[in-house]
Prior knowledge:
Elements: E1 4-10, H1 17-27, E2 33-37, E3 50-54, E4 57-60, E5 65-68, H2 73-81, E6 89-93, H3 100-107, E7 113-123, H4 127-132, H5 137-145, E8 149-153, H6 160-167, E9 175-178, H7 185-189, H8 202-205, E10 208-214, H9 221-229, E11 235-243, E12 249-255, E13 258-263, E14 273-279
Parallel strand pairs: 1-6, 1-7, 2-5, 2-6, 7-8, 8-9
Antiparallel strand pairs: 3-4, 4-5, 10-14, 11-12, 11-14, 12-13
Amino acid sequence: xxxxxxxxxxxxxxxxxxxxxxxxxxxxxxxxxxxxxxxxxxxxxxxxxxxxxxxxxxxxxxxxxxxxxxxxxxxxxxxxxxxxxxxxxxxxxxxxxxxxxxxxxxxxxxxxxxxxxxxxxxxxxxxxxxxxxxxxxxxxxxxxxxxxxxxxxxxxxxxxxxxxxxxxxxxxxxxxxxxxxxxxxxxxxxxxxxxxxxxxxxxxxxxxxxxxxxxxxxxxxxxxxxxxxxxxxxxxxxxxxxxxxxxxxxxxxxxxxxxxxxxxxxxxxxxxxxxxxxxxxxxxxxxxx
Length: 289
């Protein structure tokens, strides 16, 4: 059985994590998402998405579910893994005071979970003050440092010069703006197994570009991974099924500056291919660079 892909969503209290999660859930079908939140009381799942409740599980539209994990994160993930039908992906919203890096270390203890990346949401209006705060600044800075992809919320409410100055102080990872959490789901969660990126529709989609292409075998997969993750590439997400110089097939997954190479699943068939999602105007559209 292939590992369940998981994306962490972190960020300080009020940054906009739940707004982003709700926006993703509206785009989820036909993908079945399992959303894990620390506490139902503060989950804020849009009532229009809730179709019912069973114990500690909210049944959501399109076959998605929402579970509260409280103090037993790993136990809750194990329960999700046993559900039938099994979810296609796991989205874990951390507590506003949590360090996503610590949560990631816990998840890596589970062989049946593949951590795709960490997305951190930051409030553009409050971020400078929060980072300097003597009580919470250390936690906020740790959250930013854990990000593979940084989502700036409320950037439309910040003066252009101030926003440009803020960007220069952010970690060296891809940064995207999101008004009311509006981002294409594949930018946040990555591409489902075996699927090429669809055209990114709507206002949010106009800020991104998606490309896919077949590649001849063999390839220098390490070099491809390096090019996709280099600073200034504009690449946000990539997934590829590639044949290395030694003849072995590998699965390449990229989020921001992080690249993962793993043996290709036995079910992965067909020609070598690579799909990329990048920032319009920065990513040049080449499927491998």
